[in-house]
Amino acid sequence: MGLSLTALDVAIFIGFIVAVVAVGMLKSRREHGSESYFLAGRGLTGLLIGISLIAANISTEQFVGMTGQAADYQGLAPASYDWLPSIALVVIAFFLLPYFLRAGIYTMPEFLERRYTHWARLIMAVFSVPVLVLLVACVAYSGALTLRTAFAGQRLLGILEIDLYAGSWLIGLVAAAYVAAGGLKACAWADLIQGTALILAGALITWFAFSTLAAAPVAELTPAGVNLPAIAPAAGALERFTALNAPKLHLVLPRGDANLPWTALVLGLWIPTFYYWGLNQYVTQRTLGARSLAEGQKGLVLAASIQLFLPLILIVPGMIAFNLYSHEMRVHASADNKPALDRFEAIRGLPRPAMELFDFDEDWAKHEPELAQAMTDHNRAVWAEAEADRIAPRDLPHHRLIGHKHDTAFALLLKNVLPAGWGLHGFVLAALLGAVVSSLAAMLNAASTIASLDVFKKYLAPRASQRTVVSVGRLCVGVFVVIGCLLAPILGNPNYFNSSIFRNIQELQGYISPGILAVFLVGLLSRRAPPMAGVVGLLANPVLYGWITFAWPEVPFLDRMAICFFAIVVLMALVRLFRPLAQPVEFRAETTIDLAPSSGARWAGAAVIGAAVLLYVVFW
Questions:
Q1: Residues 209, 237: contact at Cβ < 8 Å?
Q2: CA–CA distances in Å: residue 577 to residues 30, 179, 571
Q3: Has residue 496 got a pLDDT over 70?
Q4: CATH code linked to domain 7-326+411-511+589-619
C-alpha cells in the first residue's frame, strides 16, 4: 500500500507547490527579452546561483538513483558523484568562468563559435538538445517511480491513479508551464525555495531512518555482508548502521566494476564531472546569468560547500533502506521480472532453443539458483546456435532479471519512516515534486535556449526579433516535454535499460561529454589549434564511444569516457601539429559586467578542496 495522506499533508503539498510557482512567476513577470528570459537579465546573485545549482542538480534522479545505488552493493562509493564536484566547482569558478563571462555568451555552443567556427557551435547544439530531452525523460521517470511507489493502491486527491504514465505527464506538464512562462529568473527564485526545502526534506528522511533502524528488531535487519553481524539489542542507530554496512563504507570498488571502478576515481569520473558542472548548459546557464564574476564565483563555491554534505541525505539513507526493507525491494523486482519469467517458461524445453537470451544479476541468481542454472544452460545453447549462424549475441533479444528493485529505496523510506499526522509526508512529497519540476525546468530551459539561439536565431531566422526568439523558446519547451514524457515510461523496462536510473543517465552522456570537454580544454590551452580541430573532436567522440560500447561492452562506461577523452585530445593535438593557426586566438572582453574576482570565495574554495581531500583520505 502507498502513503495515507491526511488533510494536513494535502494542504501542505498543494500550498507549497502553489507558493513556489507564484514566487517564480512574480519575480519574472517583466522578463520578455532574450537576455531577460534566457539569462535572467544577467542579474543573479551568489546565493541564488549556489542554491539554484543544487536544486537543478538534485532531483529524484539523485534521491531515487543514488539512494538505489547505495542500497545496492555500491554503498558509499557513489559519494564521489558529490565530493569530486566540490573540487571541480572551485576549479571552474576561478579557471573557466572568467573566460565565459568575459565572452558575454548565452550558451556553451556559442563559445565554441568564438573559439573555433560556427560548425563547432552547430555540432554541439545538435548533440546537446537530444541528450537534454532524454535527461528530461529520465528525471520524469524517476519522479513518476517515486510517486507510483508512494501512492500505490490510492488515487492522488481521490482522482488520479498514479502509474508511470500519469506520473510522468503530471510532473512534465507542471515543469513545462513553469519554465515556459517565467524563464531562468523564475527557475532561480523558485529554486531558492525548493533547494532549501529539498535539503531539509532529505535531512528529515535521514533522521527518521536512523530512528527506525534503532528501534527495529535485530533479527529482521538485512546486513550488507553474508552473515548477520553480532549486534546487541540495545545498540544505538549509529552502531547498528556501522555494523550492518561495514563492507560498504568505502569509496573503492574493484577494477572491473561496471558502475564505479577505482580507476574511474583517478581518471574517468573527472570527465563527466567537469563537463556537467562546467560545460553543461542547464547548469552553466545559472552562472552565465551572474551579476558579476565575483557573484558567480561565490555561487559556485557555495554549491561546492553544499555538495560535501549531500551524501548524508542521499547515500546513507539508501544503505539504511536495504537494512530495513530488502524484502519489499525483492517484491518490486518480482513484478518487473514477471514478463521475462513468463517468456522463459513458454520457451523452456523446446527442441530447438528460441534465439533469445536471459540476463540476470548475481543477486537474483543467489535467490533462484535452479532457474539461474536453467537460464545459463539455455543461453549457452543460444550462443552456440548464434555462433554457427554468425549472429552476434548483442543482436538477439535480451530479457533481464534483477534480485532487488534498489531504485525503490527512497520511496520505501518515505512510506515507512516518517511519522503520520505531522504533515511531513506532504512536505517531503512537495519538496520532491518541486525538485523534479526544478530539474526539468532547468533542462527544458537549457534545451529551448540552445534550440532557439544556436539553431533558430543563428541559422533559420537571423533577423528574428527578441520577442519571436522567446516565443520559439516557449514552443520548444512544449515540444521537448511531450517527447520526454512519451519516452519516460520506457525507462522502467529492465529489458531496455540498466536497473539503475542514475547509471543510465551517466552512461548516456558519454556519447558527448568526453569530446566536448576535450574540445573546450584544448581550445583554451592551445591557442593555435585550428577550427578544424574542434569539429574533428566533436564528431569523433560519439563514433569512438559507441564503437567501444558495442565492441567491448565489458569495459566500464567511466573507463570508456577516459579512453575517449585522451584519444580526442591526441587527435586534436595531431590536427594542431599539422595545421596550426598562424596567430594565437585572443579572447576579447565582450561584456559590461564587473569581472573583478572574489578573494573571499578563493579562500572558501581552498577550504572546500581541503575538506574533500580529507574525506577521500578517511574513506578510501
A1: no
A2: 51, 45, 10
A3: no
A4: 1.20.1730.10
